[in-house]
Amino acid sequence: MDVLIEKKTWTPAKLLLLGALVLLVVAVAASLLSSAGPATLNVDPERLTISTVSRGAFQEFVPVDGVVMPIKTIYLDAPEGGTVQRILVEDGATLTAGQPIIQLANTDLQLEMVNRETAVFDLMNNLHNTRNLLQQNRIQQLNQQADIDNQLREAKRVYDLNKTLYDQKVIARQEYQQTKNAYDYQLRRRQLSRKALNQDSLAMREQINQMQQSVTRMQSNLALMRRKLEDLTIKAPAAGRITSLDAEIGELKTRGQRIGQLDMLTGLKVRATLDQYYISRIFPGQKGEVTVNGKSYELRVKKIFTQVTKGVQVDMEFVGAAPPDLRRGQTLPVRLALSDPTVAVRVPKGGFNQKTGGNWIFKVSEDGTKAYKTDIHLGRQNPDYFEVLEGLKPGDRVITSSYEGYEKMGELELKAKAQ
């Protein structure tokens, strides 16, 4: 009878192959474990900027360039069009209020002025003649009224006499009735005459008032016309310095055309344009500082312009006296504070932040031979410092220059190159 022989699974050859594979895996793992440490690079320290972390005054501010301007500027526009006849001042001259600047000529306005004066004189003459005619008519009516009153008195006298005679049966009733009718007629005539005289008086006064109002209106128009002619002489509305004067003899200026501007001499301000990033951090009263000839002067934000185009414009005025000898248009470097001064741990600014994003930094060992990658947390910043919130302490030395080519390294060997 046949016997079934089981085939062996683990032969010596397979066991040898398995052992070789295990040894290979162990060797690879050991190699990986030996190379898992931080990557190291030799760097000449003279190529690096090594800074010391310190604790001191810190204030967040933004540097901007400000332009010196007068506190108030009045723009000068031509109120009436005309040809430049005379230029009475020079650009940059200091003027008093009301001082003539430019004389314009406009023959159309002058001709219109003559026509309006003639119309006013004609209307005044008509008013005078009408008043005379109405006065003469009133005199005639008064004379007629006097005749009527006289005839009424005579008619009343005859009526009273005949009434007495009639009562005494001396005269007939017909004669008495005639005198009574004559008296009643004259009485009615006087009533109508007085009524007509009163109505004529009212009509005369109304007509004269209307003509007088017309004369007044035309005189007002004439006064406006005179002012328009006076506007041909452009004058300084206030005391100040004339700048940007744009006019030449014989040049035609239209109404509303800009001819220059008047800078008030009451003080100076600084206008600056900030990036839109700071729009939520700017407010009136905010402090700024400018250094002129080695001396610091304090500024305060006076006005923030609501219209944002290429940035946020702000006007700043000097607290106290402005620096002497400043000129309009001069540029000043301004430090605009974004926070109050505080005490903080700080690290000088440098190119390291471009590669690390403020998350880590190379910290130099105490003996200065190595620099290790160290996690940090940065806060606020100004053009000079970063505020350090975590990871560093005062006295630590760190590399603040650019990390170009070092960003993947975990450790730097600081060794100078042999000469």
SSE map:
Elements lengths: L11 H23 L5 E4 L6 E3 L1 E5 L2 E10 L2 E5 L4 E6 L6 E2 L4 E6 L1 H61 L5 H58 L2 E3 L4 E4 L8 E2 L4 E6 L4 E7 L12 E6 L2 E10 L7 E7 L12 E7 L4 E7 L4 H4 L3 E5 L5 E6 L1 E5 L3 E6 L6 E3 L11 E4 L5
Parallel strand pairs: 1-24
Antiparallel strand pairs: 2-23, 3-18, 4-13, 4-17, 5-12, 6-8, 6-11, 7-10, 8-9, 10-12, 13-16, 14-15, 14-17, 15-16, 18-22, 19-20, 20-24, 21-22
Helix pairs in contact: 2-3
Question: In short, what is this structure?
Answer:
The chain is of the alpha+beta class. It contains 4 helices and 24 strands.
Helical content stands at: 25-40%
| Record field, number of beta strands | 24
What does the overall shape look like? elongated
- What's the structural domain tally? 4
State which percent range the strand residues make up: 25-35%
Question: Biggest sheet: strands, sense, closure?
Answer: 6 strands, antiparallel, barrel
Question: Biggest sheet: strands side by side, in what order?
Answer: 4-13-16-15-14-17
Distance between the termini: 93 Å
Helix/strand order: HEEEEEEEEHHEEEEEEEEEEHEEEEEE
* Mean pLDDT across residues: 83
SS field, number of helical segments: 4
- The Rg value, from CA coordinates, equals 53 Å
Structural class: alpha+beta
Low-confidence stretches: 30-37
